[in-house]
Batch of 2 targets.
Target 1
Amino acid sequence: VSGWALYGCRTSYALEVAETIWRRGEDLALLVDNLPADHEAELDGTLAAAGVPLRASAELRDGDFSLDVAVPLITPGHRFALEAEARSFGFASFPALLDPTATLARTARVEDGSILNAAVVVAGAAHLGRFVHVNRSCSVGHHNRIGDFASLGPGCVLAGQVTVGRGAFLGAGAVCAPRVTVGANAIVGAGAVVVGDVPPGAVVVGNPAQLLPGKEGGYGGTRVPE
Ligand SMILES: CC(C)(COP(=O)(O)OP(=O)(O)OC[C@H]1O[C@@H](n2cnc3c(N)ncnc32)[C@H](O)[C@@H]1OP(=O)(O)O)[C@@H](O)C(=O)NCCC(=O)NCCS
């Protein structure tokens, strides 16, 4: 058996990750449904119509576990939980999944489980940890350090030497000035311009980005443990 499984398929973003697999000319061999039948999340209609075999996690077969697995959830805490869940069932291969339209500098490194969507550019000596998610058209600057399970929304622009902590979430179009640090499990709002360090677990919005009082990360009310 060869090809990919999407573990946690009842999220609308699963279609985007499927598109990356198809653009690579590879086989999307299995959708794994890990949610109870009465959960409100629905399988995306376009993905459902693609004819990919769908199996509940409780009904997985031996041959399934040789597939490469991508976890298509953009919420860092959910991605963290589903890696552990997929491993507990017997999946063991979580290679980085890079869209063929993404451009990766020769000196950049991307660890297992990370997903780079279409038109992402990663500059020299950048390091993306495990299970990082980089959405469409992000620009990841030179010498960036992106921590495990961090998510960068569509169109983010990170200048050089930016550090993003484990489990942090940057909304669509967020901008980070050179050398800033976004702390673990922090949230940067859509369109924010980060010009100073963001403390761990903080939520910032606006230009220049400022703390939203009374709000707390991680994104989706779930944190990635240290
Ligand atoms: C920052 C964010 C997480 C806050 O969400 P929230 O906790 O539900 O906050 P609320 O919607 O209650 O907003 C709180 C206040 O912040 C303001 N605010 C929220 N997001 C903002 C943003 N991105 N920029 C500027 N102000 C923002 C709201 O207007 C509101 O202001 P008010 O109190 O004066 O009315 C969310 O607004 C956001 O930007 N999410 C990013 C989503 C995204 O880009 N996803 C990409 C998916 S691929």
Target 2
Amino acid sequence: MAEYDVVIVGSGILGLSTAYHVKSVHPDADILVIDKLSAAGEGNTARSAAAFRCIFSSRTNYALADSSVEFYRHLQEDLGVDLKLQWLGYLWLLTEKDYGEISAIFRDLALKSDLKYIEYEGKELTRRLCVRIDLKKDEEAQSMGLDDVFGGILIPKAGVINDVSSLVNFYETEFLRLGGKIQYGIEAKSLIAEPRQPLGMPGEPYFWQATRVAGVSTDKGVIKAKKTILAAGAWVSQILDRVGVECYIKPRKRQFFAIPAKSGELQELLYTKGFNPVGCLPFTILPRLRVYIRPFSKEGTYWVGYADDFPRAFKLEEDPQPEKSFYEYGIYQVLTKYFPQFENVRASSAFAGLYEVNSLDGHPVIFEENDLMVVGGASGSGITKADAIGRIAEALYSGKEYACFYGDKKFKVSDLGLKKRYVEPEKLVL
Ligand SMILES: Cc1cc2nc3c(=O)[nH]c(=O)nc-3n(C[C@H](O)[C@H](O)[C@H](O)COP(=O)(O)OP(=O)(O)OC[C@H]3O[C@@H](n4cnc5c(N)ncnc54)[C@H](O)[C@@H]3O)c2cc1C
């Protein structure tokens, strides 16, 4: 039976970025990507809001996001790859307490890097966006624990990819052009565990034998490989649990609701000028709870969402469905307190997907044991960080201590492993 150098399970954005970077550095390696779906990026990559930002509070996340965003800019602006990037910026609306904490983080990062940000006073935001900043006299808002908007911070190096498949296509096309192979409609059922030195005894491997992962058993037969890379997104722990490998990656439902900008007020808000070159509302994050608004300027629509935690279950679902009540009794209630423009407006459609949450610290997980590599746990920002994650996976595959990001920054590979993990807590999770 033919043995590949590498088999990668999952053709989402992380599997494809990994495939592309490994193949770029090892052009002679025989690499096969498989996916149970019928095309690339059809898993949770397709269900994402495809928003990106350079900014995170942890050194690690910031390095991953900033270099990936710079790479996407380079592809679009220098190489002419049409990624459909729209530089809308991210606008954080903040309570006084959060403003103090977050502006200190940004100030510190700006001293050490080229981070640019713009600060706005609350009154200025009201003038520009008609946002309600004073909720003290609103009893309902008080009972919901909603605080006043003290000010806002805009991060210009951020925005949305208007069609995430353009980024998926880039990695897929380049990987194939380099001679990589992809097969869709193949489901990996289990990992193949084999002794490093088979003795030909029935029932191998025995516990006293050094054992490795030698590929995957699929619904279409066995695929042998020298290295198996699992980039199966929210499904990764389902596969790893069967061989008792812990990865701390859990699936959690996330939902978006589409609101058409039909009224004059919603049109005005959507096409707000002065924040970005597009002439559109930035991706906007409301105070404290962090309900977010993702504008679609061409379609005349908003998507609104919220990343809820406790008591939302970790649950693997093939086709998670949005919950009407999550909008009506949740997001709508918070949204309309700050932006009355959304009052009496129903969601015209909705969708849901799964975050692949790293339950340890919200950072990606990239490690290897027994010829098995795991690349995942992007925790809701896999599009934003995909390029850097693919480069770290390449460095791990190549046995390098440091990965080299776009822009030549070095990153210690073991920082995102499990044994010598080294990350700071992240304060800007969405
Ligand atoms: C609602 C929502 C909004 C989001 N918004 C953003 C955002 O604005 N910005 C951002 O950066 N990120 C966002 N994300 C997160 C982002 O989508 C993910 O981090 C990213 O897509 C993860 O990529 P992946 O390759 O790990 O997973 P996936 O894209 O899910 O890819 C995994 C692939 O593995 C395949 N697979 C699984 N099991 C098997 C098997 N046994 N055999 C074969 N194939 C298998 C699946 O079919 C799938 O194609 C969002 C996610 C959701 C759900």
